[in-house]
Amino acid sequence: MTKRKNLFIAVTTAIALTLSIPIAFAEPGINANQPQTKAIDAKSVADQHLKEHASKYQLPDDLSSLQFVTTIDTEAASYVRYQQVIQGAPVFTKQITVTVDRAGKALLVVSDYVPFNSIEQMKSKISPQEAESKALEYIGGANKSKWSSASREFGYVIEDGKAIPSYRVVVKTNAPADEWDTYVHAGSGKLLKKKNRVQYATGTGKVFNPNPVETQDSTSGLADNRDADSTALTNQLKSVTLLGLDGSGYLRGQYATISSKAKTYSATNTFNYTRANDSFEDVMAYYHIDTLQRYIQSLGFTNINNRSITVNTNGTTADNSFYSPATKALTFGTGGVDDAEDAGIIAHEYGHSIQDNQVPDWGQSAEGGAMGEGFGDYLGATYEDALTGNDTFGKACVGEWDAVSYSSSNPPCLRRLDENKVYPQDWAGEVHADGEIWSQGEYEMAQAFGRDVATKLILQSHWSLTPNATFNDGAKAIKQADVLLYNGSHGAQIDAIWAARGISTQ
């Protein structure tokens, strides 16, 4: 706990065989109400055209690898669609469409057809149910409560001239509302490819990035004044792109769902507010949480808190914020500077949700709780550093803007990550103060190895821990993660960093 502090487009390749219905067109100069008509059999025209030009489209002369799907007739033309098949099974997503005009002439061929040299043989074939289970693992949806439906179909994927027997599994998930198209090898169960078919909207907004104290490099002219706007504060607003929106006009998307009293809405997905408007905090929370989750995924982790987390940016009037393991939601306070106006505070609270997602019931021990607070501060401080280009102002400090109402230091800090506290002599028995022991070790890893490497090591290490883990457990897990990810190449430095904090990696 704590601060202290669709637009949905379904693209289904259904092989629904239908009959081509000839369409009758009146001859020029003849009354259309008279019975004299000329029927165009568009499918016959398309068949003949493809046979005559089979070599051009790399097709067999008898079109045996095509299966007729449907003909769509309009006043202007007819459109004949075929599915590529192998031994009667579809080559997924590979189709041909022939446009036939009213005079019965093939005008255009659009082809996805992929020629192949061989068909991969299987020693054994997994069942459709096994393929579905594999697909769910690959999209992080093994918990069936998170998805609403799944379909599976046998067919082929062609790679490097070889037809690979495969299952296509389409899974619709509940939260976030995604639809995953996953291709699984029908023999080994190996993932061949996957794609999220839900199309998300993109919006724009204005935020502090990460906070006005950091971007101005001073506190001059920056005061809360009960959420009042000022020239100095407005000058620090940055325009950003809001990714992953669901297209509803609300701040709901892949990784964050804002649920607060402002009920922020824009029909054009344009969210430009100043801090005097409660919607400003909604945009802040959406943007920074979305950005953090995308960063985590860029490190190769697609199964860490990969969900749309519910966020209330003004859920309490206290100068405090918290993550609830019971509701899995974030709540930010409005006492002093509104907590959701500072990206470091947002990142800190998101850190708690990350750890709870990786190890449910995280932090049951005193040292585990301190690790939780320390990791939140690490996440906030390194995020701020990255956004400001590692500017020396605000280095090893988190929550500069939030802290203007209670800190007299320059810059003001919620907490620092360079207090040189050592365990156990500096242990205070207060989770936030003791978190500074842990946060400094993690922060020094980022200085030594770079943010990306350090964060990968830390996130990887979390999975090794338990709800009652200790500092020693955490340090050992980080060193083991280095063995797993980097063949132990950072081992000596990891030992030294944690030894300086009084924590053994052995």
Automatic annotation (TrEMBL):
Chain ranges of the PepSY domain: 125-194
One Pfam match: Peptidase_M36
Region of interest (Disordered), ranges: 203-227
Cleaved signal peptide residues: 1-26
Presence of the UniProt keyword DNA-binding in the record: no
Domain of life: Bacteria
Compositional bias annotation for Polar residues: 212-222
Protein name as annotated: M36 family metallopeptidase
Native organism: Laceyella putida
